[in-house]
Amino acid sequence: MTMWEATAQRLLLELLAADGIAWAQRYEAFARLVNHPAGGAPTIDACASAAALRHHQAMASTVAALGSSDHHDSIRAMVGQVHNPTNDRALDGAITGLAEAVWRGRLQAAQRVRAMDALRPLSGSGDELDSRSTRILRRLSDGTHKPLLPDPLPPPEDPQRK
User: Fold this and answer.
1) What is the CA radius of gyration of the chain?
2) For residue range 22-50, what is the model confidence (pLDDT) as tens digits?
3) What is the per-residue pLDDT across 108-131, written as a single tens digit (0 to 9) for each?
4) DSSP string of 7-68?
5) Torsion sign (Cα): 51, 55, 56, 60
6) What whole-number distance in Å separates Cα of residue 107 and Cα of residue 30?
7) Is there a contact between 74 and 114 (Cβ–Cβ < 8 Å)?
8) pTM (predicted TM-score)
């Protein structure tokens, strides 16, 4: 086991056991680790593997944490949980994570199509998942899948161009 795998598994265990401020601190650390250039893939794998264990009572936050990453494995794991959820909490976490990924404009065109295909069966069901799925689908289909983050500052003027 690599250092990154061990770190990701340890942080995931702490995230699942923590509450309140301790949970929020670990969730933030997990979100940073999932986007780390070297630690991201092992973190995504630890999270997706834990969420896929049928005997494990996956917490929503286990899957939702993947929404802070635009890594293709992260998006694939969330869409996979929507298609074939381990349990209700994993499904809730996958929808929460996809919502974050969509609202931040993290999905590429092919990922948007897969997410829409996964969410369509939930839309119109009349429950809590219906309204959340419908909002995500609307955002994906109306072309407003651009990030909701502030626009970057304009580049400084080039004195050579005057």
Assistant:
1) 17
2) 989 988 898 889 989 999 999 999 988 88
3) 888 888 899 999 998 888 887 888
4) HHHHHHHHHHH--HHHHHHHHHHHHHHHT-TTTHHHHHHHHHHHHH-TTS---HHHHHGGGG
5) positive
6) 20
7) no
8) 0.78
